[in-house]
Write the structure tokens for this entry.
Amino acid sequence: MLGVLLLIGAGAFGPSASASSATAGTSAPVRTCASLQQVTFTDGTKVTSTDDTTVTGVCRVNLVVPEQINIGVSLPTTGWNGRFVGVGGGGYVGSVTQAGDLAALSGYAAAVTDTGHTGSLLDGSWAWSATGMRTNLIQDFAYRSLHEMTVKGKAVTQAFYGRSPAYSYWNGCSTGGRQGLMEAQRYPDDYDGIVSGAPAINWDRFVPSGLWPQVVMREMGDVLPSCKQEAFTQAAVTACDGADGVVDGIVANTACRFDPAWLIGRQTGCGTITATDAAVMKKIWQGPRSKDGSFLWYGLTPGTGLSSLAGSVNGVQTPFPIVTSWFQWWLAKDPGFDWTTVTTDNFAQYFEQSREEYNSVLGTDNPDLSGFRDSRGKIIIWHGEADSLIFPQGSIDYYQRVVQQMGGLSRTENFARLFLAPGVDHCGGGSGAAPTDPLSAVVNWVEKGQAPQTLPAATTNSTITRPLCTWPEVARYKGYGDSNDASSFRCLVNPLA
């Protein structure tokens, strides 16, 4: 128990009631926003401020948990739908954003957290100290802050409305997706439903793997300029397009294969593509390997943008900051570390170190979701197949292991489903259609028993709509109708999977 909530002068409240003790619906607040300043917790958590003037219709409450976990709770002042939602963060987090306000404006009581430290979401230096890694901060970042945020957020919600949330949901992408799965794995009773988008699970493997493209280019003496990268990307899209029955510039199959050697001799705006260029591209797509060529982790899927992980400016390499921060502070543990000392020969050493030191705390890849299943929870996992930061094969690999652990696909689909979004970049964008409202899908699953067969999806400009199918099925064009409209597609088992 993390501490019983007390509202001075108004009696005592438990941290939360079960979802079955109330029903979702609108409710006016029974107390003012300012009155929440009086809320105290037996574990020393304090309300630091309240505010109902910055955003019309929203009461903001800021709390700090002992050891400096900051939490922000956003409460609709009218029209509460009876639900609570935990909102995920990104990268190394490090700040309490106002993302909860958007959820509150949609009727949800919402909570966010800085995960126990301050700083840029691209900077992981907070975990290091000259005397050793800050284990307590790492644990806060990995899981403790999430549970604290959930328990305290529900308690504040109860204090404001006079009743507990009827249902509780998690909604996050990237690190937020990892956080949702961490909740399912470690605290299976916290949430009734979870949306886990592009989850940053397998953190101990995919993050170091993000340096592989830069290591390959540097070691082979061939930093691919952007126009050559684009040539390879577009050629892969052209070669792999059409697998879904329509040529539309969207690759709808992570299993599609393309040999970069096919482009040798092609002219581009920055020179002719050489055999070395093709060899570099092959290694980038292949993903990191040990000295003997054995598999370490996945690479970027062909047709996915390269600029994030293989970026350069005027020939000067620009590795992704989250990745270099991981090597500098978490692996080398050296403020003066130079990423260019990483080679294809010693890469496996860093990779294995990352797994050994951080898998148990940050990997978030435990396939045993029996606790979450037994609590009657439902989870939607979705991932863009053109994700340029977190390799979608990692989510597929994890879900396959969940299926094996939980007794097969049909049993797993009773509570957990995976959806892949062709052509979609990290948490959205790209040429493909991303889920438009996965939170509503999991709400309907939890509250109405309507398991999602597909997720409605649309491109950023809404010119293309698609159904996202439950893995391992993919959407294929029926052969008639508007190829930009979801109704012209049906879900079939992927013949190339």
Residues 135-161 form the longest helix (27 residues). The first strand starts at residue 5 and ends at 7.
